[in-house]
Design goal:
Arc Repressor Mutant, subunit A
């Protein structure tokens, strides 16, 4: 686990620890069930334990770790039943959300989505791709300008991130190529103000992702 910083980016110690830990979880460096010891993380990243504690709270709220009264911070175990429930709820909510988002889409949001899509298409490592994919969907969720709905969808997307990483590793990155094509088609639908088309693409994307995750967990 390394504290990676994008050139020109400035982050607080809290943000640096949170982002470093999130990336290590998403790229598989830190596996399911592993304990996260505050003192060890602080020493490795050369910070005090305060930003580590704050970062662990953030990651717990995202669903990436559990804060156990006896074991401390533990990376969440995967569960086939859980991921099926996550994707059931997402399939119910996201098509409606993207339909609304397409109607409210601004040129600035479209440009930001295109930048993320382009970077995902550029072949980053799997952990970085999962992080970019997370950011892409969060931006799309917020485009509907319905804060409560975006909060629900973002939480579900955070919970799904570890499973998406498993699917990517199980397919050797094949799922990433399929997802990149979905993202491009989704952006095309957004530009065309085709809400119904965007909703169908989101549903297809979620169904294919879940099918790949199910195979990786069996």
């Amino acid at each position: 686990m390394e504290a990676q910083l994008i050139p020109g980016e400035r982050r607080t110690a809290h943000q640096m620890v949170r982002d470093s830990l999130r990336l290590a979880i998403l790229d598989g460096t830190l596996g399911a069930g592993a304990r996260l010891v505050q003192a060890d993380i602080a020493a490795r990243l050369q910070v005090s334990t305060t930003p580590v504690r704050e970062a662990l709270r953030d990651l717990a709220s995202e669903g990436l770790i559990r804060l156990d009264a006896h074991r401390g911070a533990v990376i969440r175990e995967t569960s086939l039943a859980e991921v099926r429930e996550i994707y059931l709820i997402r399939r119910l909510l996201e098509p409606e959300a993207v339909t609304i988002a397409v109607r409210a889409m601004t040129p600035e949001t479209l440009a930001a989505l295109e930048r993320l899509r382009s970077e995902m298409d550029g072949g980053p490592d799997l952990g970085r791709w999962v992080a970019l994919n997370r950011e892409f969907h969060r931006l799309l969720n917020s485009a509907a300008q319905l804060d409560r709905l975006a909060e629900i969808l973002n939480h579900l997307d955070d919970n799904a991130a570890v499973y998406v990483n498993l699917a990517l590793r199980a397919t050797g990155g094949d799922h990433r190529d399929t997802a990149n094509r979905h993202h491009q088609r989704l952006l095309d639908a957004c530009r065309d103000r085709d809400g119904d088309g965007a909703a169908k693409l989101v549903l297809e994307h979620l169904q294919q992702t879940l099918a790949t995750i199910e195979l990786s967990l069996r």
